[in-house]
Amino acid sequence: MPSIQHPVLIIGGSGVVGVQAAAAIRRLHPSLPVTIAGRDLGKAQAVAERLGVEALAADLSRPDLGLPSDALFSAVIVFVKDDWSHALRFAQRHGIPHLSVSSGAFEIGIEAARFIHAPQAAPVVLTSQWLAGAALFPTLEYAKAFRSIETLHVGVLLDEQDMGGQAALTDYERITQSGSATLTLKDGRFVWIAGEEATARYRSVDGVELPATAYGPLDVLSLATATDAKNIRFDLAFDVSASRRAGEPFSTESVIAIEGVLQSGERGTRRYEVVHPRGQAPLTALGVALATERALGLAGGEALKAGLYFPDGIIDPAYYVGRMKEFGATFTEVKANG
């Protein structure tokens, strides 16, 4: 395992998820240095002191990010929307991995264009799947039971009390309101849906049905590439979680339904439920930590070379799911038929 001398820079690291991501990285790799950065230096310092890491002021509107000219880092993680793409360019100039978590499927052209113009500069990891992969990787692991897949449907529930900080709310509003339609896959064709076609019903893990709508993280692109499924749809319910209906604290849920031909040769449908009792933040933090350790070569292989990556192309689903269980997620299979 390589020894990393320079810290991982977490921009937005004093936010709800950023704090937990820093903590997850430290839990997985206690010797890996971390620097928390944000516009509010006092807030960053308070978080850094609690975690035993460093803090810096950062400003995404500046090409140098407002950082000291002699500061060196091993990777850059961005937990807020970088409207200028300055953090990516900063990472490319320094030849270090860049990880982002805030882009919808309709927005990745910005990052892709920056990579295309400098393909040898740095590893660029697009980590904007739902909760940084918390629904994607279980789906990929469960898909191994199928010889071929006709339909993949992922429904997720974000509790109304579990939005997190202002940055997360801004991302949610931008992705749900700015894009005119949501990407799905129908009969092998990528289709953008809107209006009535985008509405759905989500059946929670306690059987309660809730209103939902098609949502546009990067999961559809990752799943389409990895599984060759003919139909893929991702729906989001923003409502009350089953745990809170039962009088407990909010949780977060993913319900995965897969229809196709099983490895046995029989047709079948399977339904799987993934729940974390402390909501979305621990899973998002873990996903970012796992992508970071992989990019730096601390787990799963050598450090990434310059390239454009989805996390599912560089992390083994079984390893990811195993880590999710270690961090408190529960997994349940409900056989539908077959």
List the helices and strands and how they pair.
Blueprint: E1 8-11, H1 16-28, E2 34-38, H2 41-51, E3 54-57, E4 75-78, H3 86-94, E5 98-100, H4 109-117, E6 123-126, H5 136-143, E7 146-159, H6 166-177, E8 182-186, E9 189-193, E10 199-203, E11 209-214, H7 219-227, E12 231-239, H8 242-245, E13 252-262, E14 267-276, H9 280-295, E15 307-309, H10 317-326, E16 330-337
Parallel strand pairs: 1-2, 1-4, 2-3, 4-5, 5-6, 6-15, 7-12
Antiparallel strand pairs: 7-13, 8-9, 10-11, 11-12, 13-14, 14-16
Explain this structure to me?
The chain is built from 10 helices and 16 strands. The protein has 338 residues and is of the alpha/beta class. The chain has 2 domains: 8-130 and 283-315, NAD(P)-binding Rossmann-like Domain (Rossmann fold, 3-Layer(aba) Sandwich); 133-279 and 319-337, Dihydrodipicolinate Reductase, domain 2 (2-Layer Sandwich). It has a 7-stranded parallel sheet, sandwiched between helices. It has a 7-stranded mixed sheet with strand order 10-11-12-7-13-14-16. A hairpin with a 5-residue loop joins strand 10 and strand 11 (209-214). The longest helix has 16 residues, at 280-295. It is globular. The model has no long low-confidence stretch (mean pLDDT 94).
Low-confidence stretches: none
Major sheet size, sense and barrel closure: 7 strands, parallel
Overall shape: it is globular
Number of individual domains: 2
Count of helical stretches: 10
Q: Name the beta content range.
A: 25-35%
Q: According to CATH, what is the topology of the largest domain? A: Dihydrodipicolinate Reductase, domain 2
Structural class: alpha/beta
CATH class annotation of the largest domain: Alpha Beta
